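> example.struct
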């Protein structure tokens, strides 16, 4: 099942994506589920899957929003593919590198990524996003997949100079509208084993990254176990699992995103996330 959040006719709703149409479930469950995060909190995916009698909308008439527009937590894994660790000349790590993003740093499929006015070093990072369905604390790795609602595509857009101001990466990872998330949340039963997925990033149709998710240094169960030890995970939380080698920063010479570029994060079985790049507008 593919689930989307969208804006249509002056309202925000959610629904099932079926081909080029969306089954609008917001009115069906009005007063019960405000959005997909509520659906996950109330363990209602089966109810959503079986719902009938909803209006069908053309996908082309909708403005998509991030699948989970209001996660409590977005937790990202840094330098978590072997090839990316090698290109970054980083030593092997005993524990994963984890940093947060803020919800207002995300935009949906089809929306522009905004290059901040303060930089010319805006970079792409194609990633697999994991959406938590059942919360928990100190989740054992062997039970981690019981807590996964599904997956989506993510572009962990990075402002490289701000990322490197200090040892703390946060300033370069959460400028508004620098990260792409979508187009849909694909439920875990439809995806199966995520380690079999292939991730490709293209910029202006040129392949920049390509790797199997099996190349993760700390796999998804390991990330869930580690993160849930230091913070409780809740339904709707997003774990962004890491990017493969091939980012713009480590190309020779480095290549950064500029206005007009089109970035595609392609994970067959999960989705195709497409965003153009535009300059942020500075007020005044």
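> example.seq
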């Amino acid at each position: 099942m593919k689930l989307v959040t969208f804006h249509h006719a002056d309202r925000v709703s959610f629904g099932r994506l079926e081909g080029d149409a969306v089954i609008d479930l917001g009115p069906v469950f009005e007063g019960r589920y405000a959005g997909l995060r509520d659906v996950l909190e109330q363990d209602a995916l089966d109810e959503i899957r079986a719902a009938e009698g909803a209006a069908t909308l053309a996908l082309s008439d909708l403005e998509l929003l991030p699948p989970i527009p209001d996660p409590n937590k977005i937790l990202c894994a840094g330098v978590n593919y072997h090839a990316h660790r090698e290109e970054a000349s980083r030593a092997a790590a005993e524990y994963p590198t984890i940093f947060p993003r803020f919800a207002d740093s995300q935009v949906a499929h089809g929306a522009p990524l905004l290059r901040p006015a303060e930089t010319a070093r805006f970079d792409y990072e194609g990633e697999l996003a994991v959406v938590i369905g059942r919360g928990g604390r100190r989740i054992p790795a062997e039970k981690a997949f019981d807590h996964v609602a599904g997956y989506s595509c993510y572009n962990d857009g990075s402002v490289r100079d701000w990322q490197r101001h200090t040892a703390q990466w946060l300033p370069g990872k959460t400028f508004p509208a620098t990260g792409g998330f979508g187009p849909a949340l694909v439920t875990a039963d439809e995806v199966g084993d995520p380690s079999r997925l292939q991730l490709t990033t293209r910029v202006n149709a040129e392949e920049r990254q390509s790797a199997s998710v099996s190349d993760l240094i700390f796999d998804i169960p390991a990330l869930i176990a580690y993160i849930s030890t230091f913070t409780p995970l809740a339904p709707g939380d997003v774990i962004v699992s890491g990017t493969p080698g091939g980012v713009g920063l480590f190309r020779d010479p480095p290549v950064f995103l500029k206005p007009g570029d089109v970035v595609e994060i392609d994970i067959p079985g999960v989705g195709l996330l497409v965003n153009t790049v535009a300059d942020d507008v500075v007020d005044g």
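> remarks
Residues 2-65 form one domain.
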